[in-house]
Amino acid sequence: MRRLIASSLGLGLIPRRLWHSDAGAGTFGAVLGAGIGAVLLAADASWWVSAAVAAGVVLASLWATAPFAAGHADPGWVCIDETAGTLIALVGLGGIPWVVALVIARAADIFKMLPGIRAAERLPGALGVTTDDVLAGLYGLSVGWILTGLLP
Fold first, then answer.
1. Average pLDDT over residues 97-117
2. Which of 58, 42, 60 is nearest to 98 (CA)?
3. Left (φ > 0), alpha (ψ -120 to 50) or beta: where does 140 sit?
4. SS3 readout for the chain
5. Where are the domains of the chain?
6. Residue 98: is its pLDDT beyond 90?
7. How many C-beta atoms lie closer than 10 Å to residue 152's C-beta?
8. 30: pLDDT confidence band, cut at 50, 70 and 90?
9. CA nearest neighbour of 134 among 33, 22, 16
10. What is the mean pLDDT of the chain?
11. pTM for this structure?
12. pLDDT tier at 152 (50, 70, 90 boundaries)?
């Protein structure tokens, strides 16, 4: 069960099947997060429902990744953390801010260029696996909410 959840319902295992590498597995997890976020947006879910879903996925990430994150291990196929980070980035957003937040969160996770993300990744175990993506999601969410305030 933990492997299924840690791999975002098996999506993180697809790259290894396709190109014999885990490269890109995080993007598959982010796509699941974007899909869930799009469903919440289409359902006109309030921001707090989106936040509750994101928090639930963060907790699922911490639980599911624990056995696979001994020491500082972060197996490439584990991508529930990217799903969680993406959902955080999209809380309460719609339209252009939704898209921008998604791109910012994904870029922040991939390139680790914003403050604190590399340090979060160095935390031990499941906390390190999940926290860098949560922080990347918070960066995306911040930009999305700033845009929401600026756009008519």
1. 97
2. 42
3. alpha
4. CHHHHHCCCCHHHHHHHHHCCCCCHHHHHHHHHHHHHHHHHHCCCCHHHHHHHHHHHHHHHHHHHHHHCCCCCCCCCCCHHHHHHHHHHCCCCCHHHHHHHHHHHHHHHHHCCCCCHHHHHCCCHHHHHHHHHHHHHHHHHHHHHHHHHHCC
5. 2-150
6. yes
7. 2
8. very high
9. 33
10. 97
11. 0.96
12. confident
| Angstrom distance (rounded) from CA 41 to CA 35 | 10
Q: What is the pLDDT of residues 39-53, one digit of tens each?
A: 999 999 999 999 999
The distance in angstroms from the start CA to the end CA of the chain is 45
Give CA 148 to chain center in angstroms: 21
72, 131 contact by CB (below 8 A): no
The token pair at 152 is: 């008519």
Give the per-residue pLDDT at 73.
Answer: 86
